Amino acid sequence: MNQARSTEAKPRKAGARAEYSSPAVDKAVDIIEFLASQGESVSITAIADGLERSVGEIYRIVLALEQRRVVSRDESNDRFRLSLRLFELANRFPPVERLVQVARVEMDALARRARQSCHLAVAEVREITVVATRESPLPMRYSVRMGSSFDMFETSSGVVIAAFSSEVERQQRLKFVKPAARAALEERFERVRAQGYEMRESLTVSGLSNISVPVHSQQGKILAALTVPYLEQTKATLEPEGVLALQIAASARMTKGLG
To answer: Does domain 2-83 have CATH number 3.40.50.1000?
Structure first.
């Protein structure tokens, strides 16, 4: 009798998932994803147009997200953008919080000894997010703002993370890449895995080289990428190879420190 009752319960439970779907939650997530894709604040009308919905459908949801500090409003023009609330929440997620705690000391030492800025990035599906930064002690420096997000394959950090991800994860990420560009990326992954790092000129900032190394768990899982945007200048006395050696050592200590 108990078995029959258990067998009958399963279909009802599966069907319940569809019954409990929430249009309001779906719209809220759509709004968050849309704002995340925008480079500047946008109006309610622009959000509605971008989501192909009416202003009436999303107005109350945007206000609710504002009240919960997920989005912020520019009072001067009544436009909205994502706040750093989601970033703050993500950093309270134990694995990320622990990683950042361990990384801070190593990144402080790296920036001081290399006389270069550095940042730590983690990946989520097809994007990377910078979760920790340290600036060069020199007056002239280049650094990436903490909380910044980028398309995974536009950065050395993202390529390094993808290269050391599982084959399944890598292929899932490559689905978002145009077929013509996939072969070049695959070759790049192979080079990164063979070398254990990536060092190449920046595609977006002239005169800058990106040096990026993986940060693994003790079980060998890729967790993040530690990257130095290397800026050549007179007072930065270490050559890129010397900075790379410091990064590799720092990454190894991070892995050990994660326990």
So the answer is: no
